[in-house]
Each structure stands twice: as C-alpha cells, then as structure tokens.
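Lay summary

Proteins are chains of building blocks that fold into shapes. Our project writes down both the chain and a compact code for its shape. Here are two examples, one after the other.
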Amino acid sequence: MFDKLPVVHDPWFWVVAVPVVLLAGMSKSGFASGLTSLCTPMMALTVGVPRAAAIMLPLLMLMDVAGLQQLWRQRDPALVRLLVPFGLLGIGLGTLMFGLLPADALAGIVGALTLTFLAQRLLFPPKANRPPAPLWVGRLCGTLSGITSFVVHAGSPPFMAYVLPLKLSPLKIGATAAVFFAAINAAKVLPYAALGLLDLRNLLTSVVLMPVAALGVWLGVKLLHLISPTWFYRLAYAGMFLSGSKLLWDGLRSL
C-alpha cells in the first residue's frame, strides 16, 4: 500500500507502531497517564531511538491539539505556571546533552528515579494531612520531564511523580498534563529540525499514523470522564511502574 511513498516499509514497524500510537493517544488524554513513556522505546525496537522519536513528535503534537480542545478549561493554572518554564529549561538542557549522553543511559536514570518514587510511595505512604512537596521538587521534576521528553519522549514519569501526590481529580491531572506537554512538545520542533530528525520519511510516516493518534485521544477522553479516581490512580501508578521498568531495562542493556 505504501510502496510508492517514502515511509518506513518494515512491516514489523507497523505491527508495533499502530497499537503504540493508539496507546499514546489514550495516555496523552490523561487516561492511564505514564504509558506515553513506553511508546518511543517500544517503537525504537524496530527503527532505533532517533527515528522513533522523530516519528512520534508530530503525532504527539496532534494529540496535544486534540487534548487541549477538550481539556483546557480543566487545567490547574498554578501547576502550569510552576512546571512549564522548568520543562522548557529541560528542553534546552536536553538539546545540549543530545549526542553527549546516550539516550538509553538517560532513559535508565529516569527509570530508576521512577521506580524509587513508586517504592517510596508503597513503603511509606503519605499521611492524609501531609503537606504537598516543596516547590523546588516541582521545579526539579519539571526540568527532568523536559530533558527526558526531548530525548525519548519519556517526560511523564517525572511529571506524574510530582503531580500524583497532590491528589487532584483525574480530569484536572489529565488537563494539566495536556497543557504542560503541549508546550514541551512545541518547543522540540526547532531543535529536532536543526538536528536533521524531521526528514521527509519520518514526517510522512507520522502523517499515515495520524488517524490512529486522533482515535486514541478520543477514546482516552471518553474513558477519563468515566473512570473513578481510585482506578485512575491505580492505572497511573501501574503505568509508571511499567514505564520505569522498561526505561531502566533499556539503560542497563546499554552498559
């Protein structure tokens, strides 16, 4: 079907890419948050990290537009003001680090931090009257999210590590994530282009996958309005566990 187009022709890529992009769309809506971080590493199994990241970027931006249209009013403005500037700082740092630090090594660090956070939450669950984490923790998580988002689109674990303990409603978390990552992904375009990642083959491959991305966001938003807070947090933590484990494995495998 695509023999005449300059797109990725490996059939195994499409076997992996379609469910991965559908999952990414659902996760980008706020449903099963954290699973977006699995998508680029999974796609990279067939085409490598740089090409997988380049193919995913236009798709993530399309998902951002769809998510913003439906979730903008439910965002937490204070969190957006706190996290976005430091996420953009992380994009700048990620650009400088690109090529200096292997993507798998950075992914492994993020995976280890994510699993450490989850272990701390399970072993030492916070008390009901515990105050929120200090602002410097949010700034650090926002910066880490920007760095890892630039390299492997794995910004969700640091973001969720700060936001989940705030015990916001599922809709507010999903909306805040939509705004944060829309800003982060938009900031990646010029650096990605300058690094030569947005070539015709990658862009056309993204275009073919766009209907799948839109369907994933639509499904995710529908489910986000139906899911109970208890199950939302269970899925969010499960997503962080799976993402953290995969990212850590990628880092250890590169040693």
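And here is the second example, written the same way.
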Amino acid sequence: MKTSALGRIALAAGVAALTAGALPATAHADDSKVERKTLPVMVEFSDASFQDADAVKAGTPDTYFGTGKDSLASFFTEVSRGQYTTVPAVEEGVVGPVTLPMTAAGCDHNRINTLTREALAAQGLVMGEDYESLSVIFPAQKTGCAWAGLGSVPGPYTWINLYGTAGGLGVLGHEFGHNLGLGHQGRSMCTDGDLVDCTSNGTSAKSLMGGGGPAAGFSAPEMIRAGWLSGSEAVKVDASGTYTLRSLHGAGEGTRALDIPMGEDRLVVEYRHAAGTLDGAIEGVHAYRVPKGAYGSSSLIDMTEANKTLANDAATDADAITAVTDTASKVSVAVVSSGGGKATVKVSLDGEKLTSGPSAGKTTDANPAPAPAPEHTGSDTDAGDGAVDATEVRSGGSAPAEDTTDLAATGGGSNTAPLAATGTLLVAAGAGALVMMRRRRRA
C-alpha cells in the first residue's frame, strides 16, 4: 500500500518513510498500556565510525527512554494519554557499537538492517522475542543518505542517519509515528468553501507527521488510527446534530473528535487547545479528509485564501475552520463557538448549508463537557519533518527484502549529500528541497 501526502522541510536534514508489512502492537483506549520493547543499536561500517561513540552510547538511552519531556518515551506517553510508550529491550538501553562488514557509501538501508539483525542474533537477541522494535543508529558522514531518519509504515524498523552525537525527538517521534501506520499528513486548500474543489498544497503543520514538530503531537484521525481514542471520544456521526468538543490532548473526559461520513471518505473534526507540552501554537476547530477510511493518510482542510501558517508569527488559529460544506455528499459543518478549552459544532447530513456563529444552531449535545481551565503549555523548538510518499518493502519474520517500490525523502541543506542514483528523480525544489523517488520492484 502506498501512502500519499505532500511534504515540507522543517529540519536541517530530511526524514524519509518506507512502508513495510506487519503492523506493530498498538494501544486501544480501553486496553491496558502498551509498552513497546525497543532496541536502539549503534552500528559502524568498515570505513566509517562515530566521531564520539562514547557520547552517542551515553546519550541514547535518555533520548529513547528518559523521563525528560524530549524523550521518545515521554512524548508517546503524553500524546497517547498513557496508553502507549517505548521501553528498553535491554538493561543498558542500547547495544553497540557493532561494526558491519560493509562500507558506508550507498545508503543501503536494507543491507544495514539485515546485517544488524544477524549481528544481534549472534549475541542471542532475536526479533520478536527479545525486542519488538529495532532502531539502527549509524554515522552519517559517508553514507550519502539524504534523510535523517527512515521508518517502516507500519512495522518495527527505524533507521537514524546520525550527524553529531544525539538524534532529536522530531526525527525519532516522526519515524516511530510511521511505525504506527501513519503517513505524512498533507493539506488540502479548499478556498471556495466547498470540499469538492480542493488542491493539495504542503503539509498540515498540525501533527508531527505533517511538519508541526513534537509540540503538535498527532491529529485526531491519527489518534483514531493508533487506537488512542475510544468510541465515546471519537463519535461516529450518523445524524444531523450539535456537539460539544473538548480539546484533543487535554485531560478529562468528553468527545474529542467527530467522525463524519462524506461519500467514500470520512470527515474528522477536532478541537485543539494548549495542553501540557502540546498545542501551544494551535487553537481552534480543525477538519481533515480521510480517504476511504485510511485514517493514517488524512489531510488538513484549509479554507484560508493563502498559507497563513507559513509565517512563524501566524496566529494559533490561522487555519481553523468556521464552516465547511461538501455539496457532493450533502455534508455541512459549522462552528457555533470555540475557545477556552471547548468548542460547539453543528453538523448537517441532509444538504443544509450551515453558517458559523451562534446562528448555526442551538447546542443540544448529548455528551456535553465542561470547559477546562487553560492548561500550561511547554515549549519545544525541535520541529519534525514532513516528507511525501512512502516505500513499500516485503517484511515479515525476516529482514526487509531489497524490492522497494516508492521512496520519499526530504533533503537537508545545500551541503547534504544527494540521494543514491537509483530510480527516477521526480521532484526537487532547491536547497533543503523536497525529493521524491520511485524505485522499480526488482524481480
């Protein structure tokens, strides 16, 4: 399966994604907490080593499993509201460095994965038994990789092409988001107010998977895909009515998302408001198109006349919706009120075109939620990326086979090494450019 979305650059080096076979265990809101046994492995090449291997080894456990807000474990614990996190597969938190019998050049992620798993098996560490997720960390200087991270979508593998001594949460969180089955979240510009006439343009900035960085967390359709919203929190709308939404990442109970039928697609509506370390730069009601029920491939609906979130000083509600209509499916949504921790939204499924504001309708929500007090929001300047399309590889009990089809990556700065000369270059747009590649499946 190929995941499609547009991407943008938000890191000094880019991040890529690839699709693999098996879906990792994900949490459901009514289940106990999922603790994903993760094994970071430092690997070196016959002709390339870490510049400071001791520093990488000392810092990696905290990067993945530390208690600070910038660790992978803390991020997933917060964004899933305690339903999912990563835990170390070995007591030391990291294995290596292991020297692989291969040179660095060529960015051969498949061979790196295969040789790493063979080296781990020789140490008695077996995939599926001793660890569930494998994160391979290697020195970037000679690889030629034009990405900072790669992740199977969904699946158990991530590759970290490391410059310096520590990977950032923007890269790690993004790649582990791919492991959960999340693609790159794009944006649909629908400036005439009708969802039948939209164009794809850029990324959402409302998710770590759409260039928003860790401080944006994940969006409602992605939370649904991950299994972190219960049935009462993600209401499937089957009749016209008015609903009260509480903030997506806030504490407490209540409806957090509306899941609305829209022809073959779904329309997911959420309310965003500062909560913990999340959503300090996001406010208001936002809507997403979900193509044919693929919640991991959603795109933000932007009704503004221009890309208002492009500027760093954009208002937190710059691309929040007030009213949207899809004339083809006779669906209309209007915001009655929004702010202070809750929003009231009216939905019509019978062709009535709604307008925003109090005149949109009187609140008759069956699941009202009190407005919470404003919550403290931390800051996080570590932005993630947003790349495009993914790569599909065969994956099961064995390492990925070398038959990838589609590869997408975001480039780094002008000094970033070019992609290996395999496949066809489809898009390149300047320094720090978005790069898409397509690889032919090998026989």
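What can we say about the second shape? Residues 422 and 439 are 7 Å apart (CA to CA).
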